[in-house]
Sequence to fold (192 residues):
Amino acid sequence: MKTRLARDIGEKQAAHIYQIMAERIWARTAGPGYERWMVFEPASEREWIQSWMPNAAAYVPQVLGDLGTRLKAAFQQAFQAGARAVAVIATDTPQIEVDDINRTFDLLNNGYQAVLGPSTDGGYWLLGMSGFQPGVFEEIAWSTSLVAEQTRARLRQQGLKSAELRTLRDIDGVDDLEGLWKDLGCGEGGKV
Fold:
């Protein structure tokens, strides 16, 4: 649930908007050449998640902890399962396209060890790596506007050759929705 968005517009509307975003991203990121895993919580909702977001190669309950702990665990699980490259994406950035995913894996398969998709709020909507690098998730002020900047610093400190994708807007509050409408060329209230 998007807690800030829920404060702005109510829990029911926020849940509905989140559902639309997640479904859009799931539909738009399907492509050949890679497997998609769905990392979810709570663990008790596996059956519902499988029906809501079908056709994942794996459904993995999210570990407890801050965002860094959860991201680190997702990367570790995927690499332990034999992945050669892994990209984790946000489910609150509706402009993500399959081309973004393909570009990420092209970069990771051609000499780059990390790929970052920065967000307009200072975070990121994608992080990809060609190997498990737990140090990338240390010393990050999660859920702040410093996340992408600090992650870039961690990538440099780890000696990783990295690339960046386009900057996209994630949706945390009603102001982000208004910004998205402007990004998409829509008028006030989301009307074209």
